[in-house]
Amino acid sequence: MSFWAARRRIVHVLVLVLCLVGLIPAAHMERKSRKAARGALMEASVVQTRRARVFGRMSNSTAGIAYYVALGVASFFLTSPAVWPAACIAAVAAALLSAYLAYSLAFVTRMPCAYCWTGHLINWALLAAVLAAHGAPA
Fold it and tell me: CA–CA separation, 121 vs 10, rounded Å?
């Protein structure tokens, strides 16, 4: 196996694993968000803040689930000239949103949320992995 083929495989597996791991905190926060919407949440949570719905009525966790699934599928085609730019734009957008939400979590809401921080770290790692896919010849 050539260097470039090995690199493509490693990047693909890395992106896929990060997406699968990212689904865990996203699904947890989605369950928590739905519980809060029903009024069944017994503790204060970041899902009750307006920053938990940056996209209007859709929760950030719903957007995260869609992002991880879409990027996981795209990971099979990252060397495609049509797929890599779209994946890169999505990863940059997710990383920027994570930066905004991390700032908000640390300095505005000041609420502990290990699942949130896990998601942010995964988003930043995904950006690095998607950027690493560029330059590997098909």
Answer: 19
